[in-house]
Amino acid sequence: MYLVEVVAAILGTIKSRQMKKDLDNFLPVQEQFVLRQIRANENTQYGRDHQFGRIHSLADFRRLHPVTTYSHYAEYVERAENGDVNAILGKSKLVMMACSSGTTGKSKHIPISSEVQNTMLSMLAGLFALQPQIKSAYRPLYKEMQILCRPRWRYSPTGIPIGPLSGYFTNKSILLAQWSTPFEAHVVDTEAEAMYVSLLFGIRDRNLCRIEGGFASGLYNMLMFIETNWRDLVADVRSGRLKEGLDLTEEQRRVITKYLVADPQRADELENEFKKGFDGILSRIFPNLEAVSALSSGTSMALYKKKCLPYLGNVDLVSLMYGSSEAFMGINVRSAREEPAYALIPSMALVEFLPVDATGTPLEGATPLLATEVKVGELYEPVVTNWSGFYRYRLGDVVKVVDFFHQAPCVDFQFRAGQMLNVHMEKLSEEAFIAALQTAAGRWSGTTLLDFTSAESVLDPSPRPGAPYYLVFLELEKGEVTAEQLKTIDEVLCEQHFVYKSFRVKDSIAPMKVMTVKPGTFKAFRQFQFDTTTAFLGQFKQPRVLRNPKQVEFFMKHVNSQ
Ligand code: AMP
């Protein structure tokens, strides 16, 4: 572990020098990146179909190649999965298909080439060089905790693994050396058991220095799990055994137990702290904890982030990077106490910026801009060209340009385009809805809003006749709210959103149907998504607008009786 960390630090230092030069030379580096992809894939079927032979500059590329969405690649992806890798990739190998979350639609298969290792190395170097929290949390002999759930790989007819991109890295023992769960004990593929085992290895280590939570929603689940299961965890730290009743095979149990040691002293220490309550628990049980990281930008993670903070004590929550299965893009160059600013790294992907409005809809007649043409404060949809066969691809995210770092634009992720309610062309963004919801919930006493989702009335299984309306499902932490209180969401939205109000006044939109759901519904929904779609748990992001009747039915079944 020490060697891995030291070698990584040396490589990181070398690579990060290059990266800083690149940041001062942004557009030329972007052009080099694109031309490298074009030359490498010139003789693929895709390259021939799209005249790569005629592309010799960034300008040629932007003139000749169209802006694309996933459907543009579906046929090439299928050919590659069936053995014709040369349909997409020329010089590099196809190592896997990354399955993107599938929470907003049908899941996508994104080709991942062997270049992923270089990109990953650049990302790590970038974090090491540019991220203030990571720099200060460098402790080569201290461990880091992450919930490690083994992906359930699927395979294409020719044996190409299909799964979450993170699964590619958690298959490599060398990259897992610093994790508190021993590599060999990383054998569990069900969420509750993986959570238990990873937490057991994590909390027994007093010297843990970092916690990686994935998305803020994942970190929140982890904290809730500790709060509910701490007695069992402490008992197992004390005895060095694994409690009965976990859904594990004999073999999994044997492998995991091999690495457990009885530690009554640590168990006493943990028990004392848990008994004092959960405010600031992480910094009390891990006195050397330097940082907790979780991707927490944007409206959809805001609720979870707020819920996590009280557990952290004096440790900061940092959102390290902005990226997706399609491309790693930016590194947060600000400290954890500030709003994130993800500086785009020009050697990792070409990012163009499609100007969009507050709902994520492209402005009329707009075409993608280069990084040098964007303005601070404006909203854009990133259009990315990556290292494994996607070109000028609309990512579906909405980001705001918040700053510049050297010559690189810094963005902050806002929301997924299309996560909007639109029953009468009012195009209400997720951001506008959540603002109204939070204002209304802030006025209710004795209860806290835990989670929410919504849908358009077209999906209501027992629709009200007349004008369309929004269906809203809320999970509350304690207590109940009255029907009168629930009505305030509609009133606040009218106060805050002019277009919505104008349609409500005209009765073109009927009042919202707001329902509270039983405790644990949103957690159960994660499992439902996992069981019924190709989504992977670690990638799960609660959709704020449900588009699928089965999902709406799920929430309807969990509504509290009035
Ligand atoms: P996936 O490809 O399924 O792993 O998900 C990638 C998506 O996660 C991106 O397209 C964004 O919508 C979201 N995302 C990426 N970075 C962040 C971040 N720092 N904070 C919140 N959401 C993020």
From TrEMBL:
Residues 342-416 form the GH3 middle domain. Residues 433-549 form the GH3 C-terminal domain. GO terms for cellular component: cytoplasm. InterPro entries: GH3 (IPR004993), GH3_C (IPR055378), GH3_M (IPR055377). GO terms for molecular function: acid-amino acid ligase activity. It comes from the Eukaryota. PANTHER family: GH3 DOMAIN-CONTAINING PROTEIN. This is Putative indole-3-acetic acid-amido synthetase GH3.1. The lineage of its organism: Eukaryota, Metazoa, Ecdysozoa, Arthropoda, Crustacea. The gene is GH3.1_1.
